[in-house]
Specification:
The protein is α+β, with helices and mostly antiparallel strands. A hairpin with a 5-residue loop joins strand 1 and strand 2. It is 44% helix and 24% strand. Helix 1 runs antiparallel to helix 5. It has one domain: Beta-Lactamase. A 5-stranded antiparallel sheet has the order 2-1-5-4-3, sandwiched between helices.
């Protein structure tokens, strides 16, 4: 399984966790979109959601937070609740997984499920290697 197909599989798995998830994306450390998985009814919002500034902000939040890993431990996730949308970002090696969900979701509960899915993904990938 290639690196990108592995990320795509992870994004599909996360998308399947909750019907309130609009999209799941993988962003590389340079803030570039690597994989984007969007529910068809939200596809019209992709341009707005994936602006370069938004992607870079997500990467920087995780990256800058790593400066404090030794003191406080690694970041599990970052939540940003906005008026119309909840954004959740998760570190995955040199990448960030960005999840957008509508306001009908419990962000902490969803974040914990996603952390579990990412952990399962890491275990599966390490078994293949």
């Amino acid at each position: 399984m290639s690196f990108y197909s592995s990320l795509d599989t992870l994004c599909q798995s996360v998308l399947g966790l909750n019907k309130n998830i609009q999209s799941v994306s993988a962003i590389n450390k340079m803030g570039r979109l690597v994989v984007d998985t969007t529910r068809p009814k939200f596809a019209h919002k992709v341009v707005e959601r994936t602006s370069e500034h938004l992607l870079m902000q997500c990467v920087l939040q995780i990256s800058m937070g790593r400066d404090f890993d030794e003191e406080y431990g690694p970041i599990n996730y970052h939540i940003s609740e906005r008026a119309n949308l909840t954004l959740l970002s998760f570190p995955l090696d040199d990448n960030v997984i960005l999840v957008t969900a509508n306001k009908n979701v419990s962000p902490i509960s969803l974040a914990k499920k996603i952390v579990g899915t990412i952990s399962d993904h890491r275990r599966q990938v390490s078994l293949v290697l």
